[in-house]
Design brief:
Structural class: alpha+beta
Domain Glycoside hydrolase family 65 central catalytic: 313-535
Signal peptide: 1-23
Oligomer: single chain
Number of strands: 28
Strand content: 25-35%
Protein name: Glycoside hydrolase family 65 central catalytic domain-containing protein
Keywords: Signal
InterPro entries: 6-hairpin_glycosidase_sf, 6hp_glycosidase-like_sf, GH65_N, Glyco_hydro_65_M
Shape: globular
Length: 682
């Protein structure tokens, strides 16, 4: 991918990891802040929608819809949709609108265990206010904001809920209706509009909920007032007198659907809101938290280093929040936190985010690989169109599976290792799950096509060796080179895996696969250090490339060469490069038994990238584009496959030579593999 960094962030964040202000709770599950300056929020997400909070009370920065794309411009590529914002509310006490300027004791808390995000504050010594945002895991197209107002004096309360439609949407229609079935009345605020270039219809519905009344009886509900400031700003409000020492509880819930997933998104969004309206709060939120409890059966527990525990758990929280085991969808580099990189799917998933999820949650891992097999036919057409055989996957993928990289970016036309990365992920899924039915139906059909691609993509040299020419490698600073180390190494690995997969299901593999794999060139300097490509002469690099041949590919296995490559290429890393290179180096050092260098590079892989006040990860030390899920995947790999000593093998997940940093007393990894094993490293 192409980094969009600014040197301006370098000075601002160079020492961030030293000065970050996080109030960490001792349970290792919550992160709190009372500092709303220089603020980057933590998204609440459920794999379908992402709700990014703001430091400003009652405001939501943005809402992101997963796998819902329209073109960014008439001549542009696809871009993930910015959803209608249902998270901005107004609250008035005694006719005064509450803002950050007239409140005190502001505090926000992320509870990773329950996937809740709570804001609390005081107003003028007469009220205490708390509200908690949920992206409901159980009702995945909806959000839920739970409010509690405690009056210390009698107050007059007014609350305004809104559906605010971004101006890029077309032809919005905003309404308010009270639906009725017998004695049950269901007030629904709704906006329906076309996406920016008309590809999709998006429908958003919302309503208020009162927990302490029977919501089926209209005369117990405050009177609702509909105000339509414009078709782009649809509002619903109520007023209530709250007496001294009383608590007033209510919620605001909304659902957002599109024609990407529903034939009738308007009606479906209504049904989800009605479900939330008429399901008791206790039951609705129990279902949400219970699903997160299931997710956290796959967990990483660090004793002796609370900050590392919080950092690692925040990374895992994001990977869980950005994915679903029932979706057959993948994860973009920024997950559901922003529209960065247009929400497209890169190698970031297969090489960086997927391995930790494969170890800890095979349901989610299956969705990630199924996303690719669902688009296999499109990849086969791409191979034909470029003169190759088999399947050729796009560097940037969207809902269609066609190439979604902007045409000006050479990565889209020449960064081909993505096809091998996908094949490797497929074989690793079988290695962990031993699901032969999946291998027959999805795994091997894809592996066969990507192996055929690499045979056709390779060029036979006069000495009988094979080259892969004219590619962009993992180090995108070196475009259009021959025999890029990682591209060649991943092709070798994928070809060999395809042969083993064929044998597993009783098919005779194409003998050419191993013949080509055995003769693809990996170039070396005279001293034995691996060359990044055929003409590499020491230029700086964007990210790890050669070192990936040691981990995760296991092509370079002798310690002498591994160390030469580590020491040589660490010095070549560009400061503005993404975080994953240090993660790779850290895993390798840990596997070599060098805990000191492993921990140094583990911290270097993410600490300079943390942004206040919660520690959201940016892509690089010099950028400000959180949340970078790819970096989260890298740091988790350091813990699982480095310190934890876990390996993906043809015999499943095994452990070899775990090692701990000096500051860690114990590392526990739970829910590993299909048997949900627990590994404890003292």
């Amino acid at each position: 991918m192409t980094l969009k960094n600014s040197k301006a962030f370098l000075i601002q964040f160079a020492c961030f990891f030293i000065t970050i202000s996080i109030a960490a709770q001792s349970d290792g599950w919550t992160i709190s802040t009372t500092d709303n300056q220089n603020y980057t929020g933590i998204v609440s997400a459920n794999g379908r929608i992402g709700i990014l909070p703001s430091s400003k009370i009652f405001e939501t920065d943005k809402i992101i819809l997963n796998n819902v794309y329209d073109k960014e411009s008439p001549l542009g590529v696809s871009r993930i949709l910015l959803g209608m914002n249902f998270g901005n509310l107004d609250l008035y006490i005694n006719n005064i609108k509450l803002t950050n300027e007239n409140i005190s004791n502001w505090k926000q808390t992320l509870n990773m265990k329950e996937a809740s995000f709570t804001t609390t504050f005081s107003y003028n010594s007469i009220a205490e206010i708390s509200y908690t945002v949920y992206a409901l895991r159980n009702v995945p197209y909806s959000g839920y904001i739970d409010f509690e107002v405690t009056a210390t004096k009698d107050i007059d309360l007014k609350v305004v809920g809104k559906i605010q439609t971004p101006t890029e949407y077309l032809q919005p229609l905003s309404t308010f209706r009270v639906l009725k079935d017998l004695e049950t009345t269901m007030p629904i605020l709704q906006t329906v509009a076309k996406s920016r270039l008309g590809k999709h219809t998006v429908g958003t519905s919302a309503t208020f909920i009162w927990h302490d009344i029977n919501s089926t009886r209209e005369n117990q509900r405050p009177e609702l007032v509909h105000t339509k400031l414009s078709e782009y700003d649809n509002q619903l409000s109520f007023e209530k007198k709250v007496f001294k020492e009383k608590k007033y509880k209510f919620a605001w819930t909304a659902a957002q659907c599109s024609t990407q997933d529903f034939f009738d998104p308007q009606s479906e969004s209504e049904r989800f809101v009605i479900f939330n309206l008429l399901t008791p709060r206790k039951d609705l939120l129990y279902q949400h938290t219970n699903l997160w409890t299931d997710l956290w059966k796959g967990d990483i527990i660090i004793e002796g280093d609370l900050q590392s525990q919080l950092d690692v758990r925040l990374a895992l929280y994001h990977l869980y929040a950005f994915s679903r085991g029932d979706s057959d969808l993948s994860i973009a580099p920024m997950g559901l936190s922003s529209q960065n990189y247009n929400g497209h799917i890169f190698w970031d998933t297969e090489l960086w985010m997927y391995p930790p999820l494969l170890v800890l949650n095979q349901d989610i891992a299956r969705s990630l690989v199924n996303y690719r097999s669902d688009r296999l036919d499109v990849a086969k057409r791409k191979a034909i169109n470029f003169g190759y055989k088999g399947a050729m996957f796009p560097w940037e993928s969207d809902d269609t599976g066609e190439e979604a990289t902007p045409a000006w970016a050479l990565t889209g036309t020449f960064e081909h290792h993505i096809t091998a990365d996908i094949g490797i992920a497929f074989w690793n899924y079988y290695r962990v799950t031993k699901d032969k039915k999946w291998l027959q139906e999805r795994g091997y059909p894809l592996l066969k096509e990507v192996a055929d691609y690499w045979v056709s993509r390779s060029t036979k040299n006069s000495d009988g060796s094979y080259s892969i020419k004219n590619v962009v490698g993992a180090n995108e600073f070196a475009p259009n080179v021959d025999d890029n180390a990682f591209t060649n190494g991943s092709a070798i690995t994928c070809l060999r895996y395809a042969s083993v997969a064929a044998t597993k299901i009783g098919i005779t593999p194409n003998k050419t696969w191993n013949e080509v794999a055995d003769k693809i060139i990996i170039h070396k300097f005279k001293d034995g250090t691996t060359k990044e490509h055929s003409k590499y002469s020491g230029d700086r690099i964007k990210q790890a490339d050669v070192n990936l041949l040691s981990y995760p590919l296991d092509i370079i296995t002798d310690k002498e060469t591994i160390l030469k490559d580590l020491k040589y290429y660490e010095l070549k890393l560009a400061e503005e490069g993404p975080a994953m290179a240090q993660s790779v180096f850290a895993v390798i050092y840990a596997r070599l038994g060098d805990a000191e260098n492993a921990f140094r590079l583990f911290k270097r892989s993410y600490e300079p990238n943390k942004r206040p006040p919660f520690g959201a990860l940016a892509e690089a030390a010099t950028s400000n584009n959180p949340y970078f899920a790819t970096g989260a995947g890298g740091m988790l790999q350091t813990v699982i496959f480095g310190f934890g000593g876990l390996y993906l093998t043809d015999n499943g997940i095994i452990q070899k030579n775990p090692i701990l940093p000096k500051t860690w007393k114990k590392l526990t990894i739970t829910g590993v593999g299909i048997d949900k094993k627990t590994y404890v490293i003292d």
